[in-house]
């Protein structure tokens, strides 16, 4: 048997140096890293774009929904019940604060006064008669002895008009000078014997008829140096008792009406009505002063009369009545229940009023949700 040699023939292998191998090994990771970085860098850019478009869609969608889609409003209402109360109370102008236990609240008195003075005509007439008066000088040429003239002694003027002395007078006696008698004299007042303008005579000489038939008649005489005046007889107006009564009635009624109008004007103002409750038909009206400025039978064509009225009513503050209602309702509910004061409603009716005592009885009706 032939000896055969089996020889494995392998192709020659080219040896690479360690340096080359390390290079090839080193190059591969770098390439992979670059690829990975490219992949990573492309992912954030896509994410940002997607997020931007998503936000745009949300914004436009919200705007469209706001304008085009129907809206719904949700209201949450707590469960409530209504409590109704009715109570009688007394409003008194002497009470200073609310007393729920006794049913008392303060009231106030609103007061006005009105004074009037008017002129009224006199309807009466009277014949007015006056006697003329004047001064005269009485002379005594009879003797040096004084002469007494009694009251009502007559003096007759040259025209025949009689005047008298109101009181007794004494005419002084004369005096002698150089053997001649100088008459004694005295000035006195005389009054016409009758009324009338015909006694308003001018200066003149008077005789004393009481001495007629005696020596004294020519020795006692008088003279006036100024006209007599004041004599008259005429029809003049006069105030009558009926005139005074009519003036009183007319003026007092007018004063009371004006006073009441002033009070109601205050009550009806917006500012007052917002703050107070009042009773326009319950007004006390009285005359506190009335007086004529003339007397009965005064002789004047017209006269003045004056009057003063006072009117008053009771008023109640709305807040006081509301506070009273609030307190009585709170007394009727439990500690767990709450009064909704915005829904509090009150009403009242007048039961009784005494303006002289300043008191008013009310029936108060109140309701509120709790």
Overall shape: rod-shaped
**pLDDT averaged over residues:** 85
Distance between the termini: 129 Å
Read across the widest sheet, the strand sequence of neighbours is: 4-11-7-6-12-13
Strand percentage, roughly?
A: 35-45%
DSSP E strands, number: 19
Biggest sheet layout:
6 strands, antiparallel, barrel
Number of domains: 2
Low-confidence stretches: 1-37
Helix content: 25-40%
CA radius of gyration is 63 Å
SSE run: HEEEEEEEEEEEEHEEHHEEEHEE
Number of helices: 5
Structural class: alpha+beta
Written overview of the protein:
There is one protein chain. With 370 residues, the protein is an alpha+beta fold. The chain folds into 2 domains: 83-122 and 239-369, no CATH class; 127-235, no CATH class. It has 5 helices and 19 strands. It has helices at residues 18-68, 216-219, 241-267, 270-275, 318-332; strands spanning 82-92, 104-106, 108-121, 124-140, 147-149, 154-157, 162-164, 169-171, 175-177, 180-182, 184-195, 205-207, 220-223, 232-238, 276-278, 284-292, 302-317, 345-354, 359-369. The strands form 5 sheets. The chain has a 6-stranded antiparallel beta barrel. A 4-stranded mixed β-sheet has the order 2-1-19-18, with helices on one face. A hairpin with a 4-residue loop joins strand 6 and strand 7. The chain is rod-shaped, with a radius of gyration of 63 Å. The N and C termini lie far apart (129 Å).
Descriptive terms for the model:
single chain, 370 residues, alpha+beta, 2 domains, six-stranded antiparallel beta barrel, 38% strand
